[in-house]
Amino acid sequence: EKHLVLLRDGRTLIGYLRSIDQFANLVLHQTVERIHVGKKYGDIPRGIFVVRGENVVLLGEIDLEKESDTPLQQVSIEEILEEQRVEQQAKQESEKLKVQALKERGLSVPRADTLDEY
Amino acid sequence: QSLEDCPLDEDEDAFPALGEEDEDIDQFNDDTFGAGAVDDDWQEAHERLAELEDKAGSSREPDGPVGNDGDVLGDPEDALAERLTRLVIDSELEDPAIMQAVHTRDPPQPGGLNSSIWDSSAVLRRIRGPLLAQEMPSVSVLDYVLPQRPPQARDEERDPSERALPRRSSSPIIGSPPVRAIPIGTPPKQAAIPNFNQQILCPKPVHIRATMQQRYPAPYGERMSPNQLCNVPNSSLLGHPFPHSVSPVLTHLQRAQLLGGAQVKLLPAGRMSPSQFARVSGLVGSPLPSVNPKLLQGRVGQMMSPAGGFRAFFGAPPAPPPSQLPHPPGPGSHLQNLRPQPQMFRPDTTHLHPQHRRLLHQRQQQNRNQHRSLNGSGGDRGGHRSSHQEQIRKDPYANLMLQREKDWVSKIQMMQLQSTDPYLDDYYYQNYFQKLEKLAAAEEVHGDGPKKERTKLITPQVAKLEHTYKPVQFEGSLGKLTVSSVNNPRKMIDAVVTSRSEDDETKEKQVRDKRRQTLVTIEKTYSLLLDVEDYERRYLLSLEGERPALMGERKQKICDMYDNLRGKAAGQDRPSDDHFMQIMCIRKGKRLVARILPFLAPEQAADVLMATARNLPFLIKKDAQDEVLPCLLRPFSHVLYHLPLGTVTSLVQQLTNLPQSAAAPTNLHLTAVLQNKFGLSLLYLVLSRGEELQSSDTNTELMQDNQWTELMLMATRELLRIPQGALAKPVSIPSNLISLFSRYVDQQKLNLLETKLHLVQGIR
Predict the structure, then answer these.
(1) Which of B114, B119, B218, B573 could make an SS bond with B184 (beta carbons 3.0 to 4.6 A apart)?
(2) Closest-CA residue in chain B for A22?
């Protein structure tokens, strides 16, 4: 009954799904936010989550047996947050370079989030 | 049933009354979560209590949820008992001793409020276990239990219950299970007031049988699920006239009591008493689909339905409950739900904050009926007498959603899937599953059949209803009103189409327009193609009489497609391939042609082929980026199969651009063809076909034969000339090329050709 929810902003939540409704609003219990960076992941316990349906990308049940055998390595929260920060930074820099290059050519590609992801 | 019904409305009404939004809600606070949580008219409750000693069977009309403000009463248990007594018709009670006990029972200490909730829950739950196990308790249980409990049970129960519910003038209050503030299942936290709860259980159970709906055995542990709480009051409070068959129910409770142990404490009345009642009834009842869904009404965390239902019940005369409650239709108007199942008793929780209410219900729901628990994570411990005590939840929060609610949500989602024409609405999904099924059938593993089917989501197909649009008409109005709607749109903007004059257009614009036109043509042709492809299916589905018409339509569409492809040249005989070339320049156009070819008549198909071959170098150049031409190979080869030699010859001619005028030193056309994968493959195909025809058909005309031979001679010469490195790698090499070439060249050259073209297997 553990479920994994992927949200539109990219977050991954894992928790016990307590209830849903027709809009796919979810109530998650004992939720843990899992951050993945490369092969490592870290869990942040969050408690109870109520997610509005429109932000849910997908939801799936976790097979508890399979959950244990995963090639991913779990690290502490601080470590994973640090890794994430590094990753974000690298992404931002490459993004900046790209935008720069495009600007030079006279093109401008609007960033995804400004488009409201559509 | 309107899905967006009352819950919201009632919420709004309820809100003003409730103020608190504590983050850290003291869940043990009886006022908010316990008996006190349910809003009652405390004054009335107070009055009732005051009369407790005096009146034994006075009938009262509580206007609101039964339940007394615990604080006001000072004796929550008492109020609960009051209600309990109300539930019971004196005459119904089998055991006069019980009744007596209820009357004389002393109210339990108010201090034990908090714990008592849990205690009774524990008891309730424990009791529930055995009860759930069997629908009909044996009478013997009653006998068994009664002797032990009668004095106390009767005592406590009688008075409160009498007060708890109004006596129905129409019929005795039957079957309302005693409301327990503390679910029976709760393990007793204190030994105080040991017998109070039990008493509560006793008389009411008689009626419980009828009130099957709330089946939430007491929450284990410390939590009383709001649902349970809500349930409790409903069942008990609304004294419904239950048939006498309910009496065995009493046995249930009694037995439950017995099993649960003596430590059930009557929950302080206040607001919780209703729930207790409900819970008890739940205990007694067989695991019927809980009415709780009504509580939840599909709204997670919104417990307003119980309240609403509760109110509804108060006003309405109780309807005889069916002996076996059908599964409620699912959340919908809670009122609607409640009407058919009047046994739902719920405290008036509308005024509660949703979170608050939810927690309430949460507690109520903690013990779910066994058969209803889906989530299963240890959420349900029904039915195990001995394990009640150890029902330390592995997962206290499991089964927050009733099966009913889950069904409701999935029902909504399935409703969205209904379509009048699945093929139209959901083409890919349907096709995908068709393929899967074919695969499964092909595997002939019958054992796996059902398994595979299980995962298929069957999208229902509903009949298409023809709606004739009738414009809205208002009565009493003069003339017809102009109402714009989807079916009858009103013109809002005056959009004027201005066509440009030829002079204004620049060359670029012309080019652009032309391209756009080509794109439009492609799209139109694509629609035609999809339609044509669909005809087969429609043919199967249609009636006999309609079939010729379908075929005719299909033919017409095919013709249209072809015309589109080649460009309708009025009066002319297609002198230019221009139109076609335009289409072929676009990637989608090429794919379109590939798909259309199977439908075309042989001559038309050949025409297309010729055009392609004629302009192949151009096409190759244009295709350099897309590399989509090879997709045409397959349909081309199919077409080739049906071509006579003459056509094939001309095809080769086109492809190779032979014979050439002597002036051209190199055969650019051929070179280009040979250097392109598609071109070379096509050439091979054509040659192979020619060879086939030559070798097989003995009746070929001489002239054609000669033509072919000449052509081949020239072709081979060219092939020899081309350096090997320049040759592309064809998709496939037909096997009869060797024999083909062997006719026209000598051995040495044949060897050369072989190596060059990798005709011999094994070299490649």
Answers:
(1) B218
(2) B409
